[in-house]
Amino acid sequence: MYGKELALDIHNADNTVNSGITSAEYIEEFMIDLCKRIDMKRMDFHSWVVDDPVNNLYGTTACQFIDKSSITMHTHDRFRKLYVNVFSCKDFDSDMVEAVILDYFGGEVVGKHELKRI
C-alpha cells in the first residue's frame, strides 16, 4: 500500500464560520490537534473564506500540508456541512480523525470513505 485517503462528510455541524464560533484560528487549532493525535508532521497551513452568493456558497477552505501529504477541509456554512479529506503515505487511525472532527465541529457523519492507494 502506498497510502490511504479518508473522506468524511459531516452534516448538522454546530461550529461553522457562519455561527461566529469558527475562525481561521479555530480551524488551525483543530488541524494542530488532529496532526498531534494521528502523529503527522505539520508543514504549511493555509485557509481562505469562500463567499459566492451566486452559487449560494459561504464557508472556509483550509489546507494543512503534512509531511508528504495533506489534510483539506471545506465548510458549507449556510447548510452546516463540513467535508474533510486526509491523505497520507503513512497509515493513520480513521476513527481518531472522525472523533477529533466531531469533537471540534459537532454534527453527524453521513459519508465516510476510505481509499487505499497502491
Chart the SSEs and their pairings.
Blueprint: E1 3-11, H1 24-37, E2 42-52, E3 57-66, E4 69-76, E5 81-88, H2 94-105, E6 108-117
Antiparallel strand pairs: 1-5, 1-6, 2-3, 3-4, 4-5
Helix pairs in contact: 1-2
Count of the separate structural domains: 1
CATH architecture: 4-Layer Sandwich
Physical arrangement of strands within the biggest beta sheet: 2-3-4-5-1-6
Helix content: 10-25%
Low-confidence stretches: none
Alpha carbon gap, first and last residue: 5 Å
Strand content: over 45%
Treating each run of at least 4 consecutive H or I residues as one helix, how many helices?
2
| Largest β sheet strand count, sense and barrel closure | 6 strands, antiparallel
Radius of gyration: 14 Å
Q: What oligomeric state best describes the polypeptide chains here?
A: single chain
What structural keywords apply?
S-adenosylmethionine decarboxylase, 2 helices, 6-stranded antiparallel beta sheet, globular, alpha+beta, 47% strand, 118 residues
What would you note in describing this structure?
This protein is α+β, with helices and mostly antiparallel strands and 118 residues long. The chain has two helices and six strands; from the N terminus they run βαββββαβ. Helix 1 runs antiparallel to helix 2. The longest helix has 14 residues. The relative contact order is 0.33. The model has no long low-confidence stretch (mean pLDDT 91).
Short recap of the structure:
It is built from 2 helices and 6 strands; from the N terminus they run βαββββαβ. The chain is α+β, with helices and mostly antiparallel strands and 118 residues long. It has one domain: S-adenosylmethionine decarboxylase (4-Layer Sandwich).
